[in-house]
Design brief:
single chain, 2 domains, six-stranded antiparallel β-barrel, 5 helices, 15 strands, elongated
């Protein structure tokens, strides 16, 4: 009798016997197939240490981290890198309504003492050293405040030594308050510089509209730290410069040139002379709007005020030039 195909002579059916070749009694375990021996599909193909499993796990983690990061970012308050300050300027226009009852709203002009009192807390004296170590003095005025800091406009010629390292200390004073200031940025061509101090101080209003600079207009040059104001007249005005007859000496460089309402027209300078025509009786102030060219990033929004008065809010931002 021949053995069945595929069988070996003398071979025993192991499945029918137990240990030591004894006949098996009771249930026998089912042999495991390959899938059961190696585990489920996800474990065989995606679970480390296989290369495919490592790549899959890394992708899953990256997606999870990305979603979490995006959620945190969208829920967080975005704080601009730039420092934002606010300068409010007021213009007074005639009402748009015609008729006998339409009266213009005007801002009254002030005396010299009235102007000095109005701007006193916002005009500071500046003390520092020049490039060769000699003491220099001047003035600065508040252009805006933000985040506990106040920004003051002044003449670059006054603080030019602070543009280099090591820089001399720049000290500002107003009344009994004395603070060290940081040179924030500057504009060489306009002789403008921006200082920052760790204090919140009211800003001066900028003149626009009917109060803007014009030839023959009465003006005042303000000096910091209780120096008062000096009257004068505008000889000529343009977008490039305001020519006036107030002698700029002593502590006046860097201070504001004001109209009779106490609003800022320009920044006093001893060195600014764009046309090269300054004399010992004629000086040039930098128009305050020139600060928006480079020293301040000024956005403008307009809000209507009671009948005929509009308020323009300028928002100086981060400087485009850093020391």
């Amino acid at each position: 009798m021949f053995p069945e195909s595929g069988s070996r002579p003398g071979a025993q059916d192991r499945s029918a016997t137990g240990w030591f070749g004894l006949p098996s009694t009771g249930p026998r375990p089912r042999p495991m197939d390959r899938r059961e021996r190696e585990g489920p599909f996800w474990k065989r193909h995606f679970w480390p240490p296989s290369l495919l499993g490592g790549v899959a796990l890394a992708l899953v983690l990256a997606v999870v981290v990305g979603f979490v990061g995006a959620f945190i970012y969208t829920r967080s308050e975005i704080v601009p890198a730039e420092k934002v300050t606010t300068v409010t300027t007021t213009t007074t226009e005639a009402p748009s309504e015609a008729g006998p009852q339409a009266a213009a709203t005007t801002v009254p002009e002030l005396t010299a003492d009235g102007v000095a009192k109005k701007v006193g807390q916002s005009v500071w004296s500046v003390n520092t050293l020049d490039e060769v170590g000699r003491p220099v003095d001047g003035s600065a005025f508040v252009a805006g405040s933000s985040g506990g800091q106040t920004f003051l406009l002044t003449s670059l010629a006054l603080v030019r030594a602070a543009t280099r390292i090591p820089a001399p200390v720049v000290t500002v004073r107003n009344g009994g308050t004395q603070l060290d200031a940081t040179l924030w940025t500057w504009h060489e061509e306009r002789d403008l510089a921006l200082l920052a101090i760790p204090r919140t101080v009211p800003s001066l209003l900028w003149a626009t509209g009917a109060g803007a600079a014009r030839a023959g207009q009465k003006v005042y040059a303000a000096t910091g730290s209780g120096g008062g104001v000096t009257p004068g007249l505008i000889v000529g005005a343009s977008a490039a410069a305001i020519e006036h007859n107030v002698f700029v000496d002593g502590n006046r460089p860097g201070g504001p040139l004001l109209n009779a309402r106490g609003e800022v027209l320009g920044v006093l300078s001893r060195d600014y002379d764009p046309a090269g025509t300054a004399t010992d009786r004629s000086f040039f102030a930098v128009p305050v709007a020139a600060a928006c060219e480079k020293v301040l990033a000024c956005g403008v929004t307009t809000t209507t005020r009671p009948r005929g008065s509009t308020t323009t809010t300028r928002r100086p931002g981060s400087p485009t030039t850093t020391p």
